[in-house]
Write a structure and sequence with these properties.
Elements lengths: L1 H18 L9 H45 L7 H29 L3 H33 L1
């Protein structure tokens, strides 16, 4: 069913392109579907990257806003820096997960050994960052409980 829908969409795009005077290259149905799926996956990966950027941006703005509001409301000693830092850290950990997912999507489209090696290196670095960030968040939670 999905394959039929994708072929239909590609044919519709080809007819539209032909009607507008663009040459349409001859391709097999499998190649057309494969190209369409690759394009969709790359767009999805970009969408996930934009989502990660939005998470980082919104969390940063929220943290700055919380800091300045608390700074204006009272003395600097009373600004809950630890809570602001923890909230920002949780958001950064989520954004790292989104970025790793986007990298996996991009590599799934056209995997070469170079791409797989690059993905492995990125995954190790992001996993290490996420591990240490989670460890810091957990130690901060433990400190706040005491």
């Amino acid at each position: 069913m999905l394959r039929v829908c994708l072929v239909f969409l590609f044919c519709l795009m080809a007819v539209t392109a032909h009607a507008q005077g663009f040459p349409v290259p001859e391709m097999s149905v499998d190649a057309k579907v494969e190209g369409l799926i690759k394009s969709l996956i790359l767009y999805l990966a970009r969408f996930v990257e934009v989502g990660a950027a939005l998470v980082i941006g919104i969390a940063s703005l929220r943290s700055l806003g919380s800091y300045f509001v608390n700074l204006v409301k009272g003395p600097a000693e009373e600004v809950p820096r630890e809570e602001i830092r923890l909230a920002l850290g949780r958001s950064l950990a989520l954004a790292l997960e989104f970025e790793l997912g986007a990298d996996i999507l991009k590599t799934a489209v056209a995997p070469s050994w170079n791409d797989v090696g690059l993905l492995a290196a990125i995954a190790v670095l992001r996993t290490a960052l996420n591990y240490f960030l989670e460890r810091e968040l957990e130690s901060a939670r433990q400190r706040s409980l005491q």
